[in-house]
Amino acid sequence: MISVRDIKVVFGRGTPLQKQALNGVSLTIEQGSFVTVIGSNGAGKSTLLGVLAGDVIPSEGQVLIGKNEVTRRSTAARAGLVARVFQDPLTGSCGSLSIEENLALAARRGEKRGLAPALGGKRRDTFKERIAELNLGLENRLKDRMDLLSGGQRQAVSLVMATLSGSEVLLLDEHTAALDPGMAEFVMNLTQKIVTERKLTTMMVTHSMRQALDYGHRTIMLHGGEIVLDVAGDNRKNLQVEDLIAMFRKMRGQTLDDDALLIG
Ligand SMILES: Nc1ncnc2c1ncn2[C@@H]1O[C@H](COP(=O)(O)OP(=O)(O)OP(=O)(O)O)[C@@H](O)[C@H]1O
């Protein structure tokens, strides 16, 4: 479960560039619920993920992950609670380490022990099984360096890594935006499968209105650091991509020139 209460974030306080990125955001996401997050550029989406991951410490408000109050805990201190997959396939895994070394590190996230014991025979078998489930043939390449993989393969492995330490919260920051459409769909279907099987409480930021409505249980829209739309159930089922685009237009008070991008 994730619960944020009246979160306020101000960047560059007291400078001419002062920016209120989040302005009193409150949100509760039940255990196992998958929420998609949309909003125009600068709406505060990444800042909200940062508040949950620990990159951004809010000036006001409270963040709870499960029963843990983590508002002021560093990213490292909450690493065992929260897993994250980024837009750039090169972020979040280490290119110069092998696939299995990356998996071993991910399995030990939030712990202090070294790498060596993490790569014992039993662990290796588990990694092999988990990677084989991707059906990408990577189970025979566990000793290959991570930077030999394509962007899509790397995101698929990153998703497996995100589930290895037992974190119950998964944060996805436009994790398919850099992939070609076919690979993006593969990674999205994989995401849905992993989230459902492992009952992960998930928040996914996307610029694709289609993805926002097709995946998950609930959609929120941020604008100007505030939640301006929060839909689930039948209300969400009845919502069309065109409705979301119309809301974007209304919020921005202008015609979008990148509708095609948003629909994709
Ligand atoms: N570290 C920072 N220092 C100063 N301003 C920041 C910082 N991070 C974000 N901002 C500002 O806060 C606002 C919200 O940014 P944020 O990155 O959360 O938006 P976003 O909705 O993720 O946008 P995008 O879709 O463009 O990624 C923006 O005006 C941004 O310029």
TrEMBL record:
Sequence intervals crossing the membrane: none
Keyword Chaperone set for record: no
Domain ABC transporter: 4-249
InterPro entries: AAA+_ATPase, ABC_transporter-like_ATP-bd, ABC_transporter-like_CS, ABC_transporter_ATP-bind, P-loop_NTPase
Origin: domain of life: Bacteria
Keyword terms of this UniProt record: ATP-binding, Cell membrane, Membrane, Nucleotide-binding, Transport
Listed GO MF terms: ATP binding; ATP hydrolysis activity
Pfam families membership: ABC_tran
SUPFAM superfamilies in alphabetical order: P-loop containing nucleoside triphosphate hydrolases
Subcellular location: Cell membrane
Family as reported in the entry's similarity comment: Belongs to the ABC transporter superfamily.
Protein name: ABC transporter ATP-binding protein
